[in-house]
Each structure stands twice: as C-alpha cells, then as structure tokens.
Amino acid sequence: MNVWDWSVFFHNLVHPTILTGLWTTIWLTLLTLFLAIVLGTVVALIGRIDSFLTRGFYQGYVAFFRATPLLVQLVFLYSALPQMGIRLSVVEAAIIGLMLSESPYVAEIVRSSLSAVPTAQWEASRAIGMRPLTIMRFIVFPQALRIAVPPLGNEFVRQLKNTSLVSVISMTELFRATDNLTQANFRVLEALSVATLYYLGATAIWTLLQNAFEKRNSRWFADTGVQKTENLKTTAV
Amino acid sequence: MTMATDSPGAFLQLRDVVKAYGHYVALKGVSVSVEKGQAIALIGPSGSGKSTLLRCINTLETISSGTIMVGDEEIGANTTSSGRKKLSEKVLARQREEIGMVFQSFNLFPHMTALDNVTSGPRLVREQDAGKARKQGMELLARVGLADKAENFPRQLSGGQQQRVAIARALAMQPRIMLFDEPTSALDPETVQEVLNVIREVRDSGMTMLIATHEMDFARHASDRTIFMEAGQIVEQGASSKVLFDPETERCRQFLAGLTGVEATTH
User: Fold this and answer.
1) Residue A108 is part of a domain; what is its CATH number?
2) Is the CB of B96 less than 8 angstroms away from the CB of A127?
3) What is the mean pLDDT of residues A43-56?
4) Burial code of B185-202, b = ≥16 C-beta within 10 A, e = fewer?
C-alpha cells in the first residue's frame, strides 16, 4: 500500500458522501451561528437592563453555557433528555446544542461592542429628541456591529470546527462522512486531507467576506489601515 | 452682586435649580431668566457648573429641585402644589427636540455623512419625508458653509467643520433655544473663528441662546448678557459690557484677569 495515493485523494474530493457532509457542515454552521447571534443578542440586551434580576440572569447564563463542554451538552440533549421524556432527533439536538453553546460567546461580544460605543453618542441622540429604541437601532447598533464583526468572524471559524462534534450523536457532517468513507477503503490519510482542505476553504471564503465588510465600514471608521491615510489626504483642507 | 429676579417677559426661566450627585452638589440654587432672542454667555472656571446647567436645561440631567420653564412649559418635570413629578421619557424626548444642544466634542454620528447627520433628527424623530429632509439639510449645510461636504463622513472633516455640522444638526429640529457647551474648546485655534461666526449668525437670526465659553472676546461682542458662575452658583450676572469690562465682584475680576492676562492690556 502506497503512503499517498493521488487517485484516492481526487476520488474523495468529489465523492458524493463527502460533498453531502460538507454541505451539512456549512448549513449547520451558518444556521446555528445565526441562531446563536439572535439568542446571544437577546441575552446581551437583557443583561444591559439595570436590575439585579436581569444582571444575575445574564451572568448565570453565560457562566453555565460557557463552562459546560459542547460534547457534554450534545450528549445530554440527545441521550439524557429522553430519560425525562423529551426526545429530540439528531438534527434537533445538534442545532440546539450548537446554538446554546455558542450563544454566551456571542452575548459577550454583543455586550462589549454595545458598551464600546461612547455614551456621548447616546447623549447627542437624546439631545435631538430620539427615543431609546431609535437610538439603539440607528445610532448605537450600526456602530457596535462594526466593532463586533472581527470577533464574530472568529466565532464562525470556531463554530465550523465545533460542528465536527455532532458526529458523536451520529449526525453525518463533513467529519463523519469522511470517517464513513475510510471504513470502506481504509485510506485515512487521503480522506482526512480532503476534509482538512474543505475546512480551510470554508474559513478562507469567510475571511474574504469579512474583509470586504470591514473595508466597506472603514469609510467612516478611523483605525483601519490603508483607507485612513488616503482619506486624511483629502481632509486637510 | 446682581440677584436673579423673575422677569415677566422671560422666555427661559430657571428658579432655584439644584442638581446634586449624591453628596456632591453641582448646582446650588441657580436662577436665571432669559428673554426671547437674547444671547447669554456663561463663564466661569472649570467645574463651576456651566455644563451641568446646560445639560439640565435640555434634561440630559434631571434636576434635584427647582423649576425650569421654556415659554409656558415646565421642562423635565411637572410641579404642582402636591410636589414635583418627573415627566415620561416620551414627553422629555419631545421637549429635547425643541432645545438644541451643541457639545464641546461635537458628537457627530461617525457612521453617517454630514448630510445624514443633519437630517437624522427630522428623519428619525419627526419621520419627515426623505426628500424634504434632504432639501432642508442641504440648506442648513449651506448656511454653515459646508454644502460641498455633504457626502463626507465626520472623520473626513476638520474639527471646526464637524462642529458646524453639529450646529446644523441641532438647527434642523427648529429649536426654540440653542445651548452651546464650550463649542470651541476642543478646536484648533485656526478653526475657532469659523465656528464663532456661525454661532454669531445664528444669534443674528434671533435665536435665544446660552453659550458656555472661554472665548471672552466672543462673549464681549456677541452676547447680550454674561453670567459668571463658580462652585455651582451664580456669582455675578448682568449686561456683558458691564460684567466683562467692569465686574462688581472681586472674584469675577480675578477670574477675568487670570483668563485674559495678555488680552487685558490691550483693552
């Protein structure tokens, strides 16, 4: 048996099992990250309400879901809940587990991004008669979003990798698909190389999208490299 | 010392306004009355309460006691014989619309162009039609001399230009009073005049205004009355020509001498 067989590599690269697994990994990542952003934002907004109860809830929520491993959460959802009469399908358990485990990280990013917008922005908005919801939506959120995007990009990459854990509850995503394939021909090296390549590719595409977004915002944001010096030249009038 | 008295023609009337933060009392019973169209200069050392006073007038800060009236309307609270009740956020927001505020550090919205900054109030608060808001916004930018900067973001503008945009943003709400909180203190010396010229133009248009400032020259020539504050109290107030050239109190004289040491010799 050769150490490396290109024909197996290329065969795996376009193998329907792998491609289906890749697709599952991608939609699972995007869907659960989206849900985690929604949930995390709601949790962060609750945490901003100035009361003992809401702050306690926020801290408890973040502490709990951040302190328990994703693997334990997934197995709990899939295997322990049935004992309490709650039966989740593999896909349901995977989606809920990935969403819950990611949400405290998003909540922390949202919370810190919101508080990074200077209070002077709130004051200037109030001074022209804006109400809190208007200020949040049109003044504070757009500015916080710009601050939140780089760390949220990290979370995409983390979430992409985390999806491999749902293989443990038998969901066939990229990693499990790869593993299935090796059961047939025992060529683990080529199969895992293909999986690695796809993980890298997905991350690279995401990075390009994120850079495009950041560049677009650098029109108004002060400390983002190249654009800054260009603009300074045109300003000094 | 000139004590404030209620004047029947007063448009803005503060009576015994107290503002305390815990044990620290920032305003210790301030009474001011301003007639419509008057420009008032607020002077005094840092921490004397000038900014706090302005922030109380447009209810960014809630006063601890006293009353503030603009026209016939009490600002920030409803005082009756049974006590003082804070107004709802909705009513406060409506009152703030009509009291323009310009900050020392401009506080423009960095993610909006100059034009969008100016139209933000009409669009987001008054839900004015975009085309109409835009037209009015362009007129205001032209008024402050920045029509050609409409599509620039704040960070592409100099400090003086940003402050002029901030003035236009406040004017876009057609306020009844304009408050300026040290509007030129954060500016490069070269750009101070362009901002003062705009403020002077706003005054000439008949706007009632209060301006906290360290620009004594501006106070002398562009304000009708000057109020000298220290430690949360009004020490002296009167016609600017009197307070700034021939103050009655020793403290005011000291302050002016210290501030305009070089300048004083030229007068």
Assistant:
1) 1.10.3720.10
2) yes
3) 93
4) eebeeebbebbbbbbeeb
The mean per-residue pLDDT over the stretch B236-242 comes to: 91
Query: Is A70 contained in some domain?
Result: yes
Candidates B60, B14, B193; CA nearest to A126 is B60
Structural domain tally of chain A? 1
**What does the pLDDT average to over B248-265?**
75
Chain B residues with CB-CB distance to A236 below 8 A: 158
**CA-based torsion, B124, B128, B131, B134: positive or negative:** negative
Q: Which of chain B's residues have a Cβ under 8 Å away from the Cβ of A125?
A: 109
Helices and strands (DSSP H and E) totals, chain B = 10, 12
Instruction: Select from A120, A129, A142 the Cβ nearest to the Cβ of B94.
Output: A129
**Of the candidates A97, A211, A73, the residue with the CA atom closest to the CA atom of residue A159:** A97
In the predicted model, is pLDDT for residue A121 greater than 50? yes
- Flag if A123 and B158 touch (Cβ within 8 Å): no
Residue A45 within a domain: yes
CA distance B16 to chain A (A): 23
Q: Does residue A37 belong to any structural domain of this protein?
A: yes
Domain with CATH 3.40.50.300 in chain B: 1-78+86-98+178-267
- pLDDT attached to residue B226: 95
Higher pLDDT, B4 or B256: B256
Lowest-pLDDT choice from A71-85, B184-198, B206-220, B251-265: B251-265
Report CB contact under 8 Å: A235, B155.
Answer: yes
Q: Do the domain assignments include residue A230?
A: no
CATH 3.40.50.300 fits B1-78+86-98+178-267, yes or no: yes
Range A1-25 burial, b when 16+ CB lie within 10 A, else e: eeeeeeebbebbeebebbeebbebb
Range of the domain at A195: 6-219
| Inter-chain touch A128–B105, beta carbons under 8 Å | no
Contact between chains at B124 and A138 (C-beta distance less than 8 A): yes
Compare all CA atoms of chain B with the CA of A122 and give the residue at the minimum distance: B107
Question: Smallest Cβ distance to A220: which of B98, B100, B153?
Answer: B153
ipTM of the complex: 0.89
